[in-house]
Write a structure and sequence with these properties.
Elements: H1 2-16, E1 29-35, E2 43-50, E3 55-64, E4 68-73, E5 79-84, E6 90-96, E7 103-110, E8 116-121, E9 127-132, E10 137-142, E11 154-157, E12 173-178, E13 184-189, E14 194-200, E15 207-216, E16 223-228, E17 234-239, E18 244-251, E19 256-264, E20 275-281, E21 287-293, E22 297-303, E23 310-317, E24 323-328, E25 334-339, E26 344-350, E27 357-365, E28 369-376
Antiparallel strand pairs: 1-2, 1-28, 2-3, 4-5, 5-6, 6-7, 8-9, 9-10, 10-11, 12-13, 13-14, 14-15, 16-17, 17-18, 18-19, 20-21, 21-22, 22-23, 24-25, 25-26, 26-27
């Protein structure tokens, strides 16, 4: 009877010109796509995705906003934040409708820097951290009870340079990551070849330099993004300029990161231009994925659960140009690859035994997509 009712309701919707009825499953998510709006894109786009069937329903433009190059979700899943990557940087907060995917503007606040490219909400949901790539600094913004943004309480300016004079003549804060225990904040600075470590005071949002204050990478690495293992024992940093992954032991009592392995995302005989972009770990902790821009591939690694070491498994073509972002859905069944320079998001099914993703044939279209964020749908 329920199936017949759904068919009748859908038919009436079509006759009356109402929006289509979207079949729902308890594991459904909304895939939000952040973009660069210098071309045909107007902001943040959304699709409803059902991992149980692999089906997608286009929800369209969720919010119009300038260059939302990175997105983050509040722990309550009611507010979404966008880093507006412009010369005068801002962060924008939106309330989220989990049924329709629509985003409603709450407010915007200054990021206190040039080119904000990454942000994250602290585990308690009281503060937002933002990294400003162009000016090489970070800011902490308090969050009000409704999730809207307050004025920054802390701004920290990085200083220095590294080996590559064209890319590293000054600091470039590229990513902000809170440790699983919540006591520390890591900032991957591409310009300094350092992962800065700060102690975080959850009472007032203050950041203070840790001891040791940073983990150093080889000159010219260009650390870009960091991902913690699900057990919190290991951290993995993608080197943009060397196209590699560096593995670290994480000491949660000291907030220290100690490297123990570096592995390339490319074969030894690779020739051509490439830069590493994203690093993500499968929810089961057994596999790690890194995206290659230039080779246009996802490098797949097996993770030793005890030692944290990586073993290269395969490089999978992403079927698009410049996969700036890759993301795994909450069930761990699918990987989405967003291609900045071919205006496409390609969907892959992950083999549960081997960890290798295979294209499903689903390709979403969006102008210059650069971020994928999954949020539970209702």
């Amino acid at each position: 009877m329920k199936t017949v009712q759904r068919i009748v309701i859908a038919a009436l919707a079509l006759v009356c010109g109402l929006p289509p009825v979207i079949a729902q499953s308890k594991n459904d998510v909304i895939a939000y796509i952040g973009t660069y709006t210098r071309g045909k894109s107007k902001g943040i786009y959304a699709w409803r995705f059902s991992p149980s069937s692999g089906k997608l329903t286009e929800l369209g433009l969720a919010a119009e906003t300038s260059n939302p190059s990175f997105l983050a979700i509040h722990p309550n899943h009611k507010v979404l934040y966008a880093a507006n990557e412009n010369a005068t940087g801002t962060v924008t907060a939106f309330s989220l409708d989990p049924a329709t995917g629509k985003l409603t503007l709450l407010n915007s606040a200054a990021s206190h820097g040039n080119g904000p490219c990454h942000l994250v909400v602290d585990h308690g949901g009281n503060f937002l951290f933002v990294a400003n790539y162009g000016s090489g600094n970070i800011a902490v913004l308090p969050l009000h009870a409704d999730g809207s943004l307050g004025e920054s309480t802390t701004v920290i300016q990085h200083a220095g340079s590294s080996a590559n004079k064209a890319r590293q003549s000054g600091p470039h804060a590229h990513c902000v990551t809170q440790s699983p225990d919540g006591h520390f904040v890591m900032v991957e600075d591409l310009g300094l070849d350092q992962v800065m470590v700060y102690r975080f005071d959850a009472a007032d949002g203050a950041l203070t330099a840790n001891d040791p204050p940073f983990a150093k990478l080889p000159p010219g690495t260009g650390p870009r993004h960091l991902a913690f293992s699900p057990n919190g024992r290991f951290a993995y940093v993608v080197g943009e300029m060397f196209s590699n992954i560096t593995a670290f032991h994480y000491d949660r009592t000291r907030g220290a990161l100690d490297s123990f392995q570096t592995i390339s995302m490319l074969p030894d005989n690779f020739k051509g231009n490439n830069s590493g972009a994203e690093v993500v770990i499968h929810p089961n902790g057994k596999f790690l994925y890194g995206s290659n821009r230039g080779d246009n591939s996802v490098a797949v690694f097996a993770v030793d659960s005890g030692k944290g070491t990586l073993t290269a498994l395969e490089r999978v073509p992403t079927q698009g140009k410049t996969p700036r972002s890759i993301a795994i859905d909450p069930t761990g069944q699918y990987l989405f690859a967003a291609h900045q320079d071919s205006d496409s998001i390609v969907v892959f099914k992950i083999n549960s035994k081997t960890g290798i993703p295979a294209a499903t044939g689903e390709v979403l279209e969006a102008g210059a997509p650069v971020c994928v964020l999954f949020v539970a749908a209702h």
